[in-house]
Specification:
This protein has 358 residues and is α+β, with helices and mostly antiparallel strands. The strands form five sheets. Strands 1-2-3-4-5-6-7-8 form an eight-stranded antiparallel barrel. Strand 10 and strand 11 form a beta hairpin. Helix 4 crosses helix 5. The longest helix has 24 residues. It is elongated, with a radius of gyration of 27 Å.
Amino acid sequence: MSRTASLELKPIGPCRWQIALALALLAPSALAENVYVGKVAGQDVVTDGLLRFAYLRIGHELSLKERGPNLYAECPSDNSRNWECEEPSGWWELRTRGERITGTWTKTRGGTGRPIALQATPHTYDDVLLGANRVAIGKTVRTGTVTWAMKKELRSGIAYPILLSGPDTAALSRINAALAKRFDDAVLDALTMEAYETDEKILYADEHVVALGGKSAEDGGGAHPTGGYSALTWNLHSGEVVDWETLMRAAPDGAVDLARDDLFLAAVLRELQRAANHDDGGCLSSAAAIMQCHDRTCADVPSLKGRTGWPMYPTGKGLAVAPDVYSETERGCRGETVVVPWREVRRGLKEPSDLLPK
């Protein structure tokens, strides 16, 4: 039986007829939860029920606001700052039949109508939106033992790296699968938010690892935009993510003694203090103040079982660490790094690792 098939109400007990009536009333609502594809005014479209939709050629999400029986206004996304929709960009007058929606689109109320024809699809809204990606590949770059290029999705403007060659083919495939997932997520964010951008790129590669990182900024239509910084390292021979903190001896939570040369976190904080001395009023001096770093101790280091979760990635000189202790008002500081020399990193290891450069 289709989702919109009529329900035959037979004589049943007093409780059961109430349930049957409720199910009948819910049928149109259930239909509206479908994902539909088709054409609106000659343009390919995907809709998430009758809540949000996108013209696939453009990609950026819009919303539908019910303004009367079977009448919907075409509006900015619910994630937009103009979600009240004082000036709709079009009007949809709809009829539903089974898993089909038909109707008429007009630019203005009473204007010349153009046809709407939509059909329910088993695909997800996100998959249809991503299936319409328009992609261009940039020039090839070589970093260490890998070659890579930036892949750009033209509707959203999102650009993300793809690895073209490396020391191990199977590992390369696993890494590219992870990069593709991050690329898709970034494209969806850019198409469904008021604004989203990222500058993530390949930061480092040698015979053992490749690292990606960068800043992102997003505006989901809330009180204010937000932003962050991320960095990831992959093992070029296994394709697995390298969690640098798990390789290190754990520091005690809370206060950290900077005299400990066997603790990687103490080495990070020593480098932070050195940088803060030349960064009066800047991001790194602010991070040192937030963690109450004085003389030989940082008294308030946010960590859990010795883990900070701070972004880290390798460089030629050492392991770069971005202390993530900033408030939203200081979000521009996220991604400011200190570099712990490799000799200090080795002292903090639980055991020797061949992931470190010789």
